[in-house]
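Hi all, long-time lurker, first post. I run a small reading group and we've been trying to get comfortable going from sequence to structure in the token notation. Rather than ask abstract questions, I figured I'd post a concrete chain and ask someone more experienced to write out its structure so we can walk through it together at our next meeting. Sequence below, copied exactly:
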Amino acid sequence: MHALIVVAHHDPMSLTHSLAAQVAAGLAEAGHTWEIADLSAQGFDPRFNPGDHAVHRQQVAPPADVAAEQVRIDGADALVLVYPVYWWSMPGLLKGWIDRVFANGWAFDYSPEAKLLKKLRHLNVHLLALGGADAGTFERHGYAKAMQTQIDHGIFDYCGARVASSHLLLDSESRDPRPHLDLARNLGLELFVQAPASAAHAH
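-- Answer (accepted) --
Happy to help. Here is the structure in token form:
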């Protein structure tokens, strides 16, 4: 089995990148293949532009950079997103990647005249988000639930993709990172183990 690990952080020495590397190590140990898509290093442009709008209207084919990302996802049995929490959501780099790549005609089919067709029902998604705040802060203000609504449901369910696991790794700037790194490695080890019918959430 093959996993595409998408990382959205500008610093290759960051804990975010270390988490992605641990997911990859777990996958390798379990006998699976993987690819890391480092959006910052590859210079992916997250800006949704007039050409992307034409793609949404299904007037033109996706541009080369978007088509290349769609091919990488099509070749994966699972998609793993590893990212820091910025302003209680994903970074603009990752959101823009989703805005452009998860396009009408590929991730879903929508038109005012027809019922929405979800085209990514075959795709399992795993979310690994790294936050600086503590769990009490997330719970007290409802941030964890808000993120689950906007990302798990608002993005992936709209396309039919299944969020098989969703982890918020908190206190990232004040605690020993080893438990987070261990969790990431275990995620890789167990990524393709048969999961229960309901998705596992660790918000």
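A couple of things your group might point at:
Residues 7 and 38 are 5 Å apart (CA to CA).
The longest strand covers residues 162-169.
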